[in-house]
Structure formats: structure tokens, C-alpha cells
From TrEMBL:
A GO cellular component annotation in the UniProt record: periplasmic space
Organism per entry: Roseovarius tolerans
GO BP annotations, alphabetical order: transmembrane transport
Pfam families in UniProt: DctP (PF03480)
PROSITE patterns: TAT
Protein name in UniProt: 2,3-diketo-L-gulonate-binding periplasmic protein YiaO
Signal peptide positions on this chain: none
Annotated TM spans: none
Gene name per UniProt: yiaO_7
Stored PANTHER family: EXTRACYTOPLASMIC SOLUTE RECEPTOR PROTEIN (PTHR33376:SF5), PTHR33376
Keyword tags: Periplasm, Signal
InterPro entries, per database record: DctP_fam, TAT_signal, TRAP_DctP_sf
Length: 411
């Protein structure tokens, strides 16, 4: 039995009782360290052990981490690395930093965690860059269509010192956010009940004219419009019913998001369009980081590096073994159990989509945003810089084989 399923067997009442005894963060961090079948006694022991380690000394700094809708269960599906980061940072600093993990949308959600970090309600947050772009528009720099040819290219860019100059430093200066690490997937279309009885999608023209829910990304809308995918803003609470009832044909997101957010029961096909980033990232307030002692700043960066390396391997494994985003599909995975068919498009179809909507082949629709982002970055050509960095590795590089690097150090 997968750990995510085993943990789901613990009742909310028991989880609340343990949280009252040891604190929510100790329960979540303890649960995140467990593997295999999880029982209430084993979870209690893990929570107690974690509590004793965390509270062995008084911390110099207690950091609130607003983790949107994440919890110990769904972080075993989409491996965003948040718990690993928090646990390692506490251990690495020997308790000088304590992290209070606040998930399940208790303190902030996907759309407003960024703003609550900027205003000091929380000190760091985890959410997708696309949903965070409303409060930090420079994050749109990751969302040019087909800028990244693969998940490997995404990881390579995040490890590259170029990410300091093109992504991280402008984000710090303009929005007061320090980009720590991120999971990497590429967005596709998650088709609902209207596609349940249709053959598995093999050509992009089969998607033309469909009506699809779009998230908060401004650049993603440009790509969808150019691909004739009719982006429509739909509230999250209405999306699942819309897919089930056929009011919308699909929704743009990535595979593990479908699995962790419980979309699988209403998704029939997961079309791997790969058209722009799906990046569940963790950032912190620059103001809070700058107030730390130098050795604690170093510890934060090293823990972020560890989390990035963990995510790179763990999420690639989870896509196959937990989510079921593979062909053939493993039995017992979330997609297999919910009859979600992955639709992997041939290279010629991806190339056709790229030529329709990417700045490389169709620059005019992107010109205004490109000029704006370039200005915010101090005049560099953001698209070209990231595009070139993403292609420094062979196109067939596997994501798990990308060489990790400490991006904040010079090459």
C-alpha cells in the first residue's frame, strides 16, 4: 500500500488529537518521514519524536510557511519538497530555525500565499508560480510557450547560475521574494467527461475549439488563444463539476496536480501538450532572509538545494509509480484506478503546436509582455536567455539525470 493511501486511513479526529498534543507541524513533519503502512501508533511515535527534536531548544527564529492546500498526504503525490525542506532546515540549524508548516489552505491559498508573504502574514510559502503571478507578475517570465522543451530543461535552468540573473534577482528586487526551489512539470490539457468516450487524443487539431479552464497565468492565456483552446476563467470550486457535467471540455494543468488535487475522478484524458511551465515552487520573504545571521542564510540555501535535488528524483518517480502518468501505465496508480488515459503526443504534433504559439515562431502576440518582463529584468532578453539555457543539455536528457548545481554560486 502506498504511504499516501495509508496515511489517508488515519481519521481527521485522530489527526486533530495528535495535533493538539504535539502541534500540527510536528505531526505533518513526522508523517512526511514515514514510509509503508501508517498506523495511528506509528504516526503518534513519529509525531512525538519529531516534537522532541524540534523543541529540544528554543529557536532564534520561527518561520511560518504557508503551504496553500498541501499536507502530508498530497505531498506524497506531487513531490514539491516542502516538508523535506522544513525538516532539513530545522535539523541543519540544530533548532535555531523552527518552521511552522501551515497547509490545507488554513492561512493562505494558491492565489494569495504570495501576497501574505509580501505583507508579512507568513514568512515563506509554497504554491505554483502561475497562481502566484497575480501578486508577483515577474513570475510570468517562466510561462513563455515552449520555452522549455522538457522537464529536464526546467531543472537544468533552475540549477543554472543563469537563473540567478534572469529569474531570482529580478524577483527579489521587484517583488521582495527569494525563489528557493521548485518541482518541474509541463502543462497540458486535462479533458473531462466530454472526452471519456472519444479515442485517445493523438493530434492537436482534435483539441481545437474546445473550451478550457485557465489558471492565473497571463502568458498561458496567450498560448491557449493561439492554439484555439478558448481559455475561460473558472473558479476552482466550479472546475470539477464543470468537467464532470461537460460545461467545459478541459482544464490546463499538469499531471501530478490532477492526482493530488483529486481531479482524477472527473478527468478522462491527460493530454501532454507540454506547452508551458507547471512549477510548484517555494519562496520566502527577502526581508526575512536578509535579517538572518550569515550562517543561517547559508543553511537556508543548502536546505533549498537539498529540497531541489529531492524533488527532481522523487517527483519523477511519483509520476510513474504514484500518479500513473506513463505508457504503459502501472496498475494501482491514481490514474489507472480512475481510468485517466495519458495522451502523449508525437514530436510532429508538439512541433506544430510550438510553431503556432511560441515566441520563436509567432513573436507578435508576446511582444508587449516580453518588453515588460525585459524591462523589469534590467533590459535583458528574458525569453532568449531562458530559451538558450534550457537547450544547453541534449533534448533526450532524462529529468532525473540532470546534474544538480548550487545555482547561487558562480559557474
Amino acid at each position: 500500500m502506498k504511504a499516501s493511501k495509508a496515511l489517508a486511513g488515519i481519521s481527521r479526529r485522530d489527526l486533530f488529537r495528535l495535533s493538539g498534543q504535539f502541534g500540527l507541524s510536528s505531526v505533518v513533519l513526522g508523517a512526511g518521514a514515514l514510509t509503508g503502512a501508517v498506523s495511528l501508533p506509528s504516526l503518534a511515535r513519529a509525531a512525538e519524536s519529531t516534537y522532541e527534536k524540534r523543541f529540544a531548544k528554543e529557536p532564534k527564529h520561527t518561520l511560518k510557511l504557508g503551504a496553500a492546500g498541501f499536507n502530508a498526504r498530497n505531498l506524497l503525490i506531487e513531490r514539491a519538497g516542502v516538508l523535506e525542506f522544513a525538516r532539513d532546515l530545522e535539523e541543519r540549524t540544530e533548532g535555531e530555525i523552527r518552521v511552522e508548516f501551515i497547509g490545507d489552505n488554513q492561512i493562505c491559498g494558491q492565489l494569495n500565499c504570495v501576497e501574505k508573504t509580501q505583507t508579512g502574514v507568513v514568512d515563506m510559502y509554497a504554491a505554483s508560480t502561475q497562481n502566484s503571478a497575480g501578486g508577483a507578475p515577474y513570475l510570468n517570465v517562466l510561462d513563455y510557450a515552449y520555452m522549455f522543451p522538457s522537464r529536464a530543461a526546467q531543472y537544468h535552468f533552475l540549477y543554472s547560475p543563469a537563473s540567478q540573473r534572469v529569474l531570482r534577482e529580478p524577483l527579489e528586487k521587484r517583488h521582495g521574494l527569494k525563489f528557493l526551489f521548485s518541482h518541474c512539470e509541463l502543462r497540458g490539457l486535462q479533458m473531462g467527461n466530454n472526452f471519456a468516450d472519444k479515442p485517445t487524443v493523438t493530434k492537436i487539431e482534435e483539441l481545437f475549439g474546445t473550451k478550457n479552464r485557465v489558471t492565473g497565468t497571463q502568458l498561458g492565456r496567450i498560448a491557449m488563444q493561439l492554439l484555439n483552446l478558448n481559455p475561460v476563467p473558472v473558479a476552482w470550486e466550479e472546475t470539477l463539476d464543470g468537467l464532470k457535467q461537460g460545461l467545459i471540455d478541459g482544464a490546463e494543468t499538469w499531471a501530478s496536480a490532477v492526482a493530488y488535487a483529486n481531479m482524477s475522478p472527473v478527468v478522462s484524458q491527460s493530454v501532454d501538450l507540454k506547452f508551458f511551465c507547471g512549477t510548484e515552487h517555494t519562496s520566502m520573504s527577502v526581508r526575512v532572509f536578509d535579517a538572518m545571521e550569515p550562517h543561517l542564510q547559508d543553511a537556508i540555501m543548502e536546505s533549498a538545494y537539498l529540497a531541489q535535488v529531492h524533488v527532481q528524483a522523487a517527483n519523477e518517480a511519483a509520476l510513474v509509480k504514484t500518479v500513473g502518468f506513463s505508457d504503459p501505465q502501472l496498475p494501482g496508480t491514481i490514474f489507472a484506478e480512475n481510468n485517466v488515459r495519458p495522451a502523449f503526443l508525437a514530436d510532429d504534433q508538439i512541433k506544430m503546436a510550438e510553431e503556432m504559439c511560441s515566441p520563436e515562431f509567432n513573436p507578435e502576440p508576446w511582444a508587449q509582455w516580453r518588453e515588460r518582463l525585459n524591462g523589469w529584468a534590467g533590459g535583458i532578453d528574458t525569453y532568449q536567455e531562458i530559451y538558450d539555457t534550457a537547450r544547453e543539455i541534449p533534448i533526450d536528457t532524462l529529468p532525473e539525470n540532470v546534474e544538480p548545481r548550487r545555482w547561487w554560486r558562480s559557474a
